[in-house]
């Protein structure tokens, strides 16, 4: 069994940040095990569309710091022109303008995946994808980490996967019951979400003085936004699909969504180039089988996640464990840095 000083379980934003920070601290004996065929976890940009995380806000200082460090620019979410609110099936649409004095949500140039690409570029060699951890066994002064094809040992293991799916890993000895209970009760942020994005030859809605923002709980897209990225030249709309469409066939869902957007933004919608969507609730690398849309008050950053387990050889990280901005990219980065600093000194 190959031995490492540190094994990180999960190559999402948190796990990659931990490895990046360990490297900055001069710690290079690191292995990251990732169950998916790709890295990034809940950050996924396809055809220029952010199907996972998209925005950060002014108080997300850890995102801002990492972007600055990695020299990745950001830009304001486009909100110029009229936005549309559809709140009642019988009433006409209502138009409104965003407050130009309100703090803007920020987007990452090249999509949120830019942060994943930049973070991983110097640590690529230590990442193994398609490698699901299914067992962690405590030995005297190290841990054994088991995957389907290969087993490894490590002095320290950092688990960064969403707490609710940690139960997919068999820990020997078992994790304390109070920790298991807390994990099962921790909703995985956005794991119920369905996102869709559509690309176009040009942002036709802007020519009509529309912002692209289309909001309303009664429609098939509860939220839709302009998702153009000046750096890539991709013109697109992206938003959240009404969960009531979850069980439809993808082609039927797409047809309903296109019709809805065409009604409010214009028939040019049908001249789209690409349509992409993702239902995170059926992706078991993120979601548990038991959830749809629960835990709207998730209470992230439970102090139980800051404790060390197996005599300090095992710690938990990831956005849901973060006492600061849990659920968001900022929480993932905060917890990732914190985890690296913690294992490196102990
Ligand atoms: C639809 C959606 C919209 C969002 N919008 C925003 C937004 O606008 N702004 C914002 O700040 N945040 C947003 N978020 C949240 C943001 O994406 C997360 O906070 C962040 O990406 C979480 O990173 P993480 O590393 O903690 O977890 P994850 O990204 O979930 O990473 C965990 C990793 O562990 C892997 N894994 C799971 N099980 C195993 C196993 N047994 N063995 C090995 N690997 C395993 C997974 O494949 C994954 O790569 C959104 C999320 C979604 C899904």
Give structural attributes.
single chain; 346 residues; alpha/beta; FAD/NAD(P)-binding domain; Polyamine Oxidase, Chain A, domain 2; 7-stranded mixed sheet; 7 helices; binds flavin-adenine dinucleotide; oxidoreductase activity
Give a verbal description of the structure.
This protein has 2 domains: about 1-45 and about 115-190 and about 290-345, FAD/NAD(P)-binding domain (3-Layer(bba) Sandwich); about 75-110 and about 190-280, Polyamine Oxidase, Chain A, domain 2, CATH 3.90.660.10. It is α/β, with parallel strands linked by helices and about 350 residues long. Strand 16 and strand 17 form a beta hairpin. Strands 1, 2, 10, 11, 12, 13, 14 and 20 form an 8-stranded mixed sheet that branches. Strands 8-7-16-17-18-15-19 form a 7-stranded mixed sheet. It has a 3-stranded antiparallel sheet with strand order 5-9-6. Helix 1 packs parallel to helix 3, helix 1 crosses helix 7 and helix 2 crosses helix 7. It has 7 helices and 20 strands. It has helices at about 15-25, 60-70, 115-120, 175-185, 205, 250-265, 330-345, and strands spanning about 1-10, 30-35, 45, 50, 55, 75, 80-85, 95, 105-110, 125-130, 135-140, 145, 150-160, 170, 195-200, 210-215, 220-225, 235-240, 275-280, 315. The structure holds flavin-adenine dinucleotide (FAD).
């Amino acid at each position: 069994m190959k031995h490492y000083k540190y094994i990180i379980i999960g190559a999402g934003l948190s796990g990659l940040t931990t490895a990046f920070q360990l490297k900055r601290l001069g710690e290079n004996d690191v292995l990251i095990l990732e169950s998916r065929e790709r890295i990034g976890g809940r950050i996924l940009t396809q055809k220029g569309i952010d199907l996972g995380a998209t925005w950060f806000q002014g108080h997300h200082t850890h995102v801002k710091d990492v972007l600055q460090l990695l020299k990745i620019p950001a830009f304001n979410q486009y909100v110029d022109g009229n936005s549309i609110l559809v709140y009642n099936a019988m009433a006409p649409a209502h138009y409104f303008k965003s407050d130009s004095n309100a703090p803007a949500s920020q987007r990452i140039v090249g999509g949120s995946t830019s942060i994943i690409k930049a973070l991983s570029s110097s640590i690529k060699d230590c990442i193994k994808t398609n490698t699901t951890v299914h067992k962690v066994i405590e030995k005297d002064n190290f841990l054994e980490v088991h995957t389907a094809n290969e087993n490894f040992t490590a002095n320290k293991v950092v688990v960064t996967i969403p707490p609710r799916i940690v139960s997919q890993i068999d820990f020997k000895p078992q994790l304390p019951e109070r920790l298991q209970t807390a994990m099962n009760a921790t909703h995985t942020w956005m794991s119920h979400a369905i996102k869709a994005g559509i690309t176009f030859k040009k942002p036709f809605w802007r020519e009509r003085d529309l912002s692209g923002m289309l909001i309303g709980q009664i429609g098939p897209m509860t939220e839709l936004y302009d998702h153009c990225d000046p750096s890539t030249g991709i013109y697109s709309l992206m938003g959240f699909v009404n969960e009531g469409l979850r069980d439809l066939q993808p082609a039927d869902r797409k047809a309903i969504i296109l019709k809805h957007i065409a009604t409010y933004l214009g028939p040019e919608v049908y001249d789209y180039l690409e349509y992409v969507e993702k239902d995170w609730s059926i992706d078991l690398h993120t979601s548990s089988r038991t959830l749809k849309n629960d835990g709207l008050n998730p209470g992230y950053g439970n102090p139980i996640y800051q404790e060390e387990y197996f005599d300090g050889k095992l710690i938990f990280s990831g956005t849901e464990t973060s006492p600061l901005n849990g659920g968001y990219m900022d929480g993932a980065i905060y917890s990732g840095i914190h985890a690296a600093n913690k294992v490196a000194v102990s």
